[in-house]
Prior knowledge:
Elements: H1 8-12, E1 15-19, H2 23-34, E2 38-43, E3 54-57, E4 62-65, E5 71-72, H3 76-84, E6 91-92, E7 98-103, E8 108-113, H4 135-138, H5 162-176, H6 185-194, E9 205-208, H7 212-226, E10 230-233, E11 237-242, E12 247-252, E13 256-258, E14 264-267, H8 271-277, E15 287-295, E16 306-310, E17 316-319, E18 324-328, H9 339-354, E19 363-373, H10 377-380, E20 393-395, H11 408-425
Parallel strand pairs: 1-2, 1-14, 2-10, 7-16, 14-20
Antiparallel strand pairs: 3-4, 5-9, 6-9, 7-8, 11-12, 12-13, 15-18, 15-19, 16-17, 17-18
Amino acid sequence: MAPNGETADQKARPRAFVIGAGISGLAAATQLAARGMAVTLYEAAGQAGGRCRSYYDPVLDQTIDNGNHLVLSGNGAIIRYLERIGARGALAGPRRAVFFFADLKDDTRWTLRLNAGPLPLWITSRARRVPGTRPADYLPYGKLMFASRRATVAQTVPTKGALWDRLMRPFLLAALNTQPEVGSAQLAGQIMRETLARGGRACRPRIATPTLAAAFIDPALAFLEKKGAKIEMGKRLRNLVLNNRSVLALEFSDATVPLNAGDTVVLAVPPWVAKEMLPDLAVPTEFCAIVNGHFHMPAPKGTPPIMGVIGGTVEWIFSFADRISVTVSGADELVDRDREELARILWADVCKALKITAELPKWQIVKEKRATFAATPEQDIKRPPTKTPWRNLMLAGDWTDTGLPATLEGAVRSGEAAAALALRRGTL
C-alpha cells in the first residue's frame, strides 16, 4: 500500500480527479475508469446525483425523484452512459413516439403520433398532428435549425397559433427551461435537429424506472467501485492551487492533495462554484427555476405515463405506480410562492387533466431556483469550452458549451468531452 492510501496498481496508473458527482461528473468518471485511469471522485453533498437524484421523503413515506427528467430514444450520450454502467434496461417507455396532451382551456384531448422515419409524414395526417393545424404551419419551424447564435426564437419563427400553443411552446419550454420566446433560436434548433427532424425513432419517450437514482446514479457508483475508483462524499473542494500552466494541488478543508505531472482534474460543479475557483472564467450568470410537485396517489388505470398539459400551470404529468408527479419549467414566477398554495394549484390541474375528483393527497413540492442557466442568446455566449488555459484542468457540466441547452443529454456529453481530453493527455 502506498503512503497516501493508494494501492501499487492505482499509483502506477494515470490519475484523474473528478470534482462533482452529478451526471456530468459521473459520466466523466465512469468513462475514465472504463479506460483504466485511477479515478477519485469528490462530491460536496452527502449523496451523488446533483439535480438528478432520488431520496426518501418522510412526508410521502416513499422514495421520490427531486424532479422529472424525460429522456428520448435518440439521446445517444445517455444511451452510451447507461450501457457503460450496465443500466440500459433502466428506461421504460412506449415502442413508438406517442405523446398525449390535454388542453385545460377547452377540455380537449389528443395524441401526437410521429412516424418512425425522418420524413414527417405525420404532419399530413389530421389524426396524428396537432389539432387545429395544417401541414404548412410546421414548415417555418425548420428555420430554427439554421439560426444564428444571437437570434431568439421569437425573431426566427412564429410564436402564435395552434401549433405554437399546443406543441412548439411546451416542447421548447421543457427543452430550454426558459420562456421560449426569448430563448436561443440556435439551441432550440439543435434540439429540433436531434429530435423531431430525425423522426419518431429518435423521439420515443423514456422515463427512469423505478427512480432516477436506480437508473443513473446507483449503477454508476457500483461501476466505479468495481473499477477500483475512490469515492468521497461530503468532501467540498475549497481551492485549486494553480500556476500559469497547471493545477498543482486540490485543497479541501481537511487535506491538500498534491498532483503529479500526469494527473488530470475534471471540474464538474455548478457554474457559480467554478467561478469561485477560477475568478477569470466566463460562465452564465442568469438562471431559471423548475418547480416539481409529487402527490402520493397512483394515477387512474389507463393514464399514460407522460401527459403534456396546455392552458394550466402544470406542464407535464408523470404517472408512476405509487405517485403522480408534475413539472413546471421556467417557473421563476412560481418558485417563491407558498408551498401549500402551489400544491393546491398543481393538484387542481392534475384533476382536470386526468378527469378525476379527489381531495389533495399527501404532497411534496421541490423547488430548484437555479435549476439551469437561462437559455437565452446572451447567456449561451457566456458558456465556456471544456478545455481551459490549464493543461490538466477540464470543465464539465450542462452549463458548458455543449451546443445543447441544460439537459441530461448535454450533461453527459460534457462529461464525455472532459474525459476525452483527459485521456488524450494520458498514456492510455
